[in-house]
Specification:
The complex is a heterodimer of chains A (489) and B (225).
Chain A lengths: L7 H4 L1 H53 L6 H14 L15 E6 L5 E5 L5 H9 L8 E3 L8 E7 L5 E7 L1 H49 L17 H51 L6 H28 L7 E5 H18 L3 E4 L6 E5 H18 L5 E8 L3 E8 L28 H11 L3 E6 L5 E8 L10 H7 L1
Parallel strand pairs in A: 7-9
Antiparallel strand pairs in A: 1-2, 1-5, 3-4, 4-5, 6-8, 9-10, 10-12, 11-12
Chain B lengths: L1 E5 L3 H13 L3 E5 L2 H10 L4 E5 L7 H10 L6 E5 L6 H8 L3 E4 L4 H15 L8 E4 L2 E4 L4 E4 L2 E3 L3 H12 L4 E2 L1 H8 L10 H13 L8 E4 L3 E4 L3
Parallel strand pairs in B: 1-2, 1-3, 3-4, 4-5
Antiparallel strand pairs in B: 6-7, 7-8, 8-9, 10-12, 11-12
Classes of the chains: A alpha+beta (489), B alpha/beta (225).
């Protein structure tokens, strides 16, 4: 009941749900982007390759047609430079020198015939010579001094020389890098927002579930007036709340019926008992001397026993159905045990029993005084009735942070093994017992009604032990007004 | 003392009326709330006995209504319900008392006396109690019989004081438990009797006239004559 939800925000399933949802979303979008990027990269490559092939062919034609005089270099060079200005995907370079394109003519003896581009061109020629370039098939060439490789197309000219046109992949890579950076930023933003949205919605939904859980856990023993919160929406959570409330309605009505039955049963039995008792007492005072008094006295005693039995039976029955009604007040348990010990000590001594109350500090609980008094009296009665002479009863009060235990131990014969598993059932008693067998059932009933437990066992050294554990504060703070509500019924 | 008895069970009403009249009360009886209300307003009663389960209304509502109408007399509530609910507790704090059925007549009479005493407190409380040759000094917590000091435990002194205050009247075991030990329990064992035997052993020593008498089936009485 009181399983506290420690720091509910951290334990909430909303974190888990939004984490996995965002992870799946992030992974999926990343995959899509990788495909897209691949596609874009190939497309850019294809375009620049087409441009290179076209231009190198034009340059090849120009080189072939241009007469090999002293103007040859200038003509071809200018054409190459013009071509270089129409580079696809071109981005403005920091310096004026066009270092993204080069034109190179290699003579048949592998010498540098013509060079248009940044630098001297010898490094480029060396790089080209290292790789075997196939005409009409642009290839990547790494040139010393340049971080980015060149895409180089080549064509053979009739005079045995070769013309190379190179295009730096710098711009292409820059485009792709920009694309990636932008994507990454947007991706992070979207994933974050997605996470936030999923988290907020699930938390909202789950917080409603949590409110239902909290409300339902507070509707504990005998408090059936509260209902779990509902919303106007008609989703699954709202349905859950409605179903729970309908269930509580049914439980409450059967509980109410049980109270009505036990109350009217008690009433119907008590009224004639009162009348009988009164008449017996009157006839007793009329014949206070003589022998006819004896049966009247016996009848009175029997009647009182019957009344107590009736009370306890009904209490046990109600407690078994978790329907015992409590009126909680502050009780000083240590003081109560001292008073009870004083009360029972002479009777115990008469039977040759020793009683030992281990001193306890001040312990208070919120509980129903009448029930707790009767429960402790029952614990004492139990020892008094069942222990043979010369035994010792030890009573201890153990206070823990959240609960209090009352422990009764003796060094008598203990519980017989045949009744052991049924100790807390009504009407279970040992063969020699002359009680009506409600004692332990009643103790259990009172403990349960207060949200506590009762346990009975045989000690390893011999003797019986009964422990009643009660919560210090009623687990539910809203318990105290129950009495009022019942009274209003 | 004029007493209004509100009880719908005629059997109970009958024997209560007879016992109360025997005890010296002038009793008028009502079987339902309406009659009770009329009688309570017309006649000036010193005390009321009201059963909670009336045919026409709830006993508590009747008491609250009578209070509104200016009836100030204390009320002894009779309840056949098992649990004492908060409204009864509230009335108890307001100066009334309750008794669950079935009850011993002696207890009913004792509670009536208490209620009347509570509402008419004596000027100053006596510091000494005297019953025949038994004398109690309430300030020094000492008891003596025929001038001879009795060696009593504090608990026994409280018990004897209770007897002395009710000298000549019957006290039941549950009254003793309630008044001396402060709990309304019904032990299955003879715990109270053992206390009385011990007290009697000290008060009624050999050769003296026994003061504490057992009335079997009813309780005990401290002789005052």
């Amino acid at each position: 009941m009181s399983s506290k939800i420690a720091s509910p925000k951290l334990r909430s399933a909303a974190w888990r749900i939004s984490f996995w949802a965002s992870l799946a979303f992030a992974f999926g979008t990343m995959l899509v982007f990788i495909f897209l990027q691949e596609f874009v990269e190939q497309d850019i490559q294809r375009r620049s390759d087409a441009w290179l092939s076209g231009e190198v062919e034009v340059l090849g034609n120009v080189a072939e047609r241009t007469p090999k005089d002293r103007l040859y270099g200038r003509v071809v060079g200018e054409v190459a430079e013009l071509a270089g200005r129409e580079v696809p995907n071109k981005l403005p370079s920091e310096n004026d020198a066009n270092d993204s394109v080069f034109f190179l003519q290699r003579g048949s003896n592998d010498s540098l015939q013509l060079w248009v581009g940044a630098g001297s061109g010898t490094d480029t020629l060396a790089a080209i010579l290292r790789i075997k370039l196939i005409p009409d098939q642009p290839t990547d060439v790494r040139v010393k001094g340049f971080a980015v490789p060149f895409r180089v197309a080549c064509i053979r000219v009739d005079d045995g020389s070769r013309i190379y046109l190179g295009l730096s992949e710098r711009d292409e890579l820059r485009v792709l890098r920009n694309l990636r950076i932008r994507f990454l930023l947007w991706w992070l933003l979207i994933v974050f927002f997605g996470f936030a949205i999923v988290f907020l919605t699930t938390r909202r939904m789950l917080s409603h579930v949590r409110r239902i859980t909290e409300a339902a856990s507070q509707i504990g023993h005998s408090d059936l007036n509260t209902r779990v919160p509902t919303t106007k929406r008609n989703d699954e959570v709202a349905q859950l709340a409605l179903t729970l409330n309908r269930m509580l309605d049914r439980i409450e009505s059967s509980m109410h019926q049980l109270h009505t039955i036990t109350d009217s049963l008690a009433h119907d039995l008590r009224s004639p008992l009162t009348a009988i008792r009164g008449k017996l007492e009157m006839s007793l005072s009329a014949s206070s001397h003589g022998e006819q008094a004896e049966p009247i006295v016996c009848a009175l005693e029997e009647l009182d026993r019957l009344t107590e039995f009736l009370n306890q039976s009904l209490d046990v029955a109600e407690a078994k159905a978790d329907a015992l009604r409590l009126t909680r007040t502050q009780i000083e348990l240590d003081e109560l045990l001292r008073v009870m010990t004083d009360l029972y000590e002479p009777s115990m001594a008469d039977k040759g029993l020793q009683i030992r109350l281990y001193n306890a500090d001040r312990v208070t609980i919120q509980a129903d005084a009448a029930l707790i008094h009767r429960m402790i009296a029952n614990l004492f009665d139990n020892e008094l009735k069942h222990l043979p002479a010369a035994c010792t009863v030890s009573i201890r009060l153990q206070a823990e942070e959240e609960s209090v235990s009352i422990v009764f131990e003796d060094n008598g014969p203990g519980f017989s093994t045949e009744v052991m598993p049924l100790l807390f059932e009504s009407r279970v008693k040992g063969k020699e017992s002359n009680g009506h067998g409600l004692g332990l059932a009643f103790i259990d009933a009172v403990a349960r009604a207060h949200g506590g437990t009762a346990a009975a066992s045989n000690r390893p050294k011999g003797g019986a032990q009964v422990t009643v554990t009660l919560p210090r504060v009623s687990g539910v703070t809203s318990v105290s007004p129950i009495g009022m509500v019942h009274a209003a019924h | 003392m004029r007493l209004l008895l509100v009880e719908d069970e005629l059997d109970i009403q009958d024997f209560l009326r007879r016992s109360l009249e025997e005890a010296g009360y002038q009793v008028e009886a009502a079987s339902d709330g309406k009659t009770a209300q009329r009688l309570a307003i017309d006649g000036a009663f010193d005390i009321l006995i009201v059963d909670l389960g009336l045919p026409d209304q709830d006993g508590i509502s009747l008491i609250l209504r009578l209070r509104q109408l200016g009836v100030r007399a204390p009320v002894l509530i009779l309840s056949a319900r098992r649990s004492v609910d908060d409204r009864v507790r509230g009335l108890e704090q307001g100066g009334d008392d309750y008794l669950t059925k079935p009850f011993a007549l002696a207890e009913l009479l004792a509670r009536l006396r208490n209620l009347l005493k509570r509402n008419n407190p004596p000027g100053n409380e006596a510091t000494r109690l005297r019953v025949l040759d038994l004398e109690l000094d309430l300030l020094r917590r000492e008891a003596s019989r025929s001038g001879q000091m009795l060696q009593l435990t504090p608990q026994e002194f409280v018990l004897l004081e209770y007897f002395c205050r009710n000298a000549g009247r019957v006290v039941t075991r549950s009254m003793i438990l309630d008044q001396v030990w402060g709990m309304r329990i019904q032990p299955e064992t003879n715990v109270v009797d053992v206390h009385i035997y011990r007290l009697r052993g000290k008060v009624d020593s050999i050769g003296q006239q026994p003061l504490i008498r057992t009335l079997r089936g009813v309780g005990y009485v401290l002789k005052d004559r």
